[in-house]
Specification:
heterodimer; A: alpha+beta; Thrombin, subunit H; six-stranded antiparallel beta barrel; 4 helices; 12 strands; elongated; B: mainly alpha
């Protein structure tokens, strides 16, 4: 009987020792991994980047191909919308041309000058996670540092640099839940008072417009660009288009659903503005 | 677990992390992307024998490592959570006795949904539980988990 009891105590002690030992080994592994956090992450990104780039490009083209089958019904409607939009844009061009001829052109030129002269680093997209954080294949070795604004080829704001590794960076998209960007409603009448608001990320690659005073008049398809209030990115960079307005007279501010100009599915390369200085 | 199995598991986890980060974002469901790492880890843990605690810890270390690798966090949160989830899953499976099949689909799917919610909420990624995105995440992850379940089962049958 005594022998059985001793055996049971021994066994319990042995199990306890095993658990303690396993716990200590796991903690030791975690400790070592976290000491080497940046080199380990950079190493894996470095060896994975070529494969990721290929996978990203091939999945993008297959999704476009598949999407064309699935959305064939909506393509006709989309084409009609694009025609209308094109007409609207042509009329806007006409307005801008007339502005250019007039004395008010100075403002427009000044605005264009502010956006020119920036230095860019072109980076390829190699990954995205479900927190709306992109991975690009350029890092501190290429002159990228945190908080730098990121745009796409169409001059639409994608987000800002959140974390930089030696050869890679993480970009927080404007659709990320922690992202807030000051914007203004682009108006064809340059004399009209500026309507300012903020674009807040809601996750899932979507965002919404908020903090527009209820007495300001905004319309569907209004274009939103970064405002001069926003110090994290250059002004007049395309951000989104209004798709649905939520107005409640009981509330001081109105909100709106927006369609972001930056689309992950069309993003092959992004441009990091490396010499933008916050004022 | 043989070293061949261990290497095979590591390679598969690596492939899944690449697919999760570079392939599935282009096939997102309203922004939702399936968490292949968690799904594969859960499938492995679910089909592990009841005494295979060390195998589960090994799977959790590899799965957690790859999860944390592509996140912004330090190494640790996913590893520790997956160890806890894996070991708890085995305890729950011991309590859920079943006469015929040891690994029935009904247990798999209900336990998967429960543990996925625990994993996601404990990781602190979703403070707003009732947003629509989490519903799509759940749907997408569950569908993928079903695919993994039947693929793993057929793979096991073919090996026998």
């Amino acid at each position: 009987m005594k022998g059985v009891k001793n055996f049971s105590i021994h066994r319990r002690n042995h199990n306890l020792l095993q658990i303690l030992l396993s716990g200590m080994i796991i903690l030791l592994i975690l400790f070592v991994l976290n000491i080497l956090l940046l080199p380990v992450k950079n190493f894996f990104f470095y060896i994975s980047a070529p494969i990721q780039k290929i996978v990203w490009s091939s999945s993008k083209s297959s999704s476009v191909f598949l999407g064309s089958f699935l959305n064939s019904a909506s393509i006709f409607q989309e084409n009609e919308n694009l025609k209308k939009e094109n007409q609207s844009l042509l009329s806007q061009i006409a307005v801008f041309k007339s502005i250019e001829k007039g004395s008010l052109a100075q403002d427009s030129v000044l605005s264009a000058c502010q956006n020119s002269g920036f230095e860019f680093v072109m980076a390829g997209v190699i990954g995205l996670n479900d927190d709306d954080i992109l991975t690009i294949n350029k890092g501190s070795d290429d002159g990228i540092s945190e908080e730098m604004p990121v745009i796409n080829q169409q001059n639409a704001l994608a987000g800002k640099i959140l974390k930089v590794y030696k050869n890679f960076s993480k970009v927080m998209l404007i659709s990320n839940k922690n992202s807030v960007v000051n914007v203004k409603v682009q108006q064809s009448d340059v004399l009209a008072p500026e309507i300012d608001g903020v674009i807040k990320g809601s996750g899932g690659l979507s965002a919404y417009l908020d903090l527009i005073p209820v007495n300001n008049n905004i319309n569907l398809n209004d274009v939103l660009v970064t405002s001069s209030i926003d110090k994290s990115s250059p002004k007049d960079v395309l951000v989104a288009k209004i798709t649905q307005i939520k107005k409640d007279d009981q509330k001081p501010f109105q909100q709106a659903q927006v369609n972001l100009f930056f689309d992950v599915k069309t993003a092959d390369n992004l441009f990091v503005i490396t010499n933008y200085k916050k004022e | 677990m043989s070293w061949k199995n261990a290497i095979f598991t590591i390679v598969l986890f690596y492939i899944f992390v690449l697919l999760q980060n570079s392939f599935f974002p282009n096939f997102n469901l309203l922004g939702a992307i399936p968490d292949l790492i968690f799904i594969y880890f859960f499938t492995l843990a679910f089909f592990s024998s009841k005494e295979a605690n060390y195998s589960i810890i090994f799977y959790a270390l590899i799965a957690g490592f790859f999860s944390d690798l592509y996140s912004l966090s330090y190494f640790g949160p996913s590893i520790i959570l997956m160890i806890i989830i894996g070991l708890t899953l085995k305890k729950v499976q011991l309590l859920l006795k079943n006469k015929g099949d040891n690994y029935p689909f009904s247990y798999f799917i209900s336990l998967f949904i429960a543990f996925w919610f625990i994993y996601v909420s404990l990781l602190g990624l979703y403070f707003h539980f009732f947003n629509f995105n989490i519903i799509f995440q759940l749907i997408y992850n569950t569908i993928t988990a079903v695919v993994f379940f039947f693929s793993y089962k057929s793979f096991q049958k073919s090996r026998k």
